[in-house]
Write a structure and sequence with these properties.
Layout lengths: L8 H32 L14 H7 L1 H27 L5 H16 L1 H10 L6 H28 L9 H11 L1 H15 L1 H16 L2 H15 L1
Length: 226
């Protein structure tokens, strides 16, 4: 190939900027879908009627709705944190990554539907198993696709070059174990649906809460005090 056919440095820089812009748009669009999905969850919350004499009892009667909201809010929040961690390490993206990301957003935007099913049928012994199973499959798909996005980006060299191995291991430790956990809880849900719902909440909270950061802060405080 002749030297004249090679792109000069300015052309390569412009190409890099275009890729960066596309990645930024992917992140912005994803954040919008996450925000809309998490907002739609609140529409299922029920306020007792104005003439209700026992408001506290009425609220307690609707516990499946509030539990479903809490679990889904935590699960979407967990997925958003994982997605944000991945995109933070992205240097650029390719067309397949965009499509995998769209598939992830499909299941994120779908989650309010099985959440509504969960709220409706968690008090129905004949139907709660089906509702919990569909709900778990949706969570499994979200977790699985986040893992796929991370490993695909890593395998295709889409990660920033200055990321060290320790940082890569930290992100992998966040996106992979939850996938296995969701698979196990789906099986549990076939036998004990209500326990499975509680476990879905536990998974989201364990991954979402910064236990390591809290532990490091406590150790630093203890070291400073001594």
């Amino acid at each position: 190939m002749a030297d004249d056919d090679l792109p000069d440095r300015s052309d390569r820089r412009d190409l890099s900027e275009r890729f960066s812009l596309r990645t930024a748009r992917m992140e912005a669009f994803s954040d919008g879908v996450f925000a809309i999905a998490i907002t739609l969850l609140v529409l299922d919350l029920v306020v007792p009627e104005a003439n209700e004499r026992h408001v506290g009892h009425a609220l307690l009667h609707e516990w499946p709705i509030y539990l479903a909201y809490l679990v889904s809010f935590a699960s979407i929040g967990n997925a958003w944190l994982g997605h944000s961690a991945i995109t933070e390490f992205l240097d650029h993206a390719d067309s397949l990554l965009f499509r995998i990301n769209l598939l992830l957003l499909f299941f994120v935007s779908l989650l309010p539907f099985p959440t509504h099913m969960l709220a409706n049928f968690l008090n129905n012994p004949n139907s709660e198993r089906v509702a919990v199973t569909i709900y778990g499959i949706n969570l499994f798909a979200i977790s699985g696709l986040i893992s796929v996005i991370w490993h695909y980006a890593h395998g295709e060299g889409l990660i920033k070059g200055d990321v060290d191995d320790e940082e890569l291991r930290v992100v992998s430790s966040k996106v992979d174990p939850s996938l296995l956990s969701y698979g196990v809880v789906i099986v549990v849900g076939l036998l004990l649906p209500r326990l499975a719902v509680v476990l879905y909440l536990v998974i989201a909270l364990v991954v979402m809460l910064p236990f390591r950061a809290i532990g490091r802060a406590l150790r630093r405080r203890k070291t400073t005090a001594t």
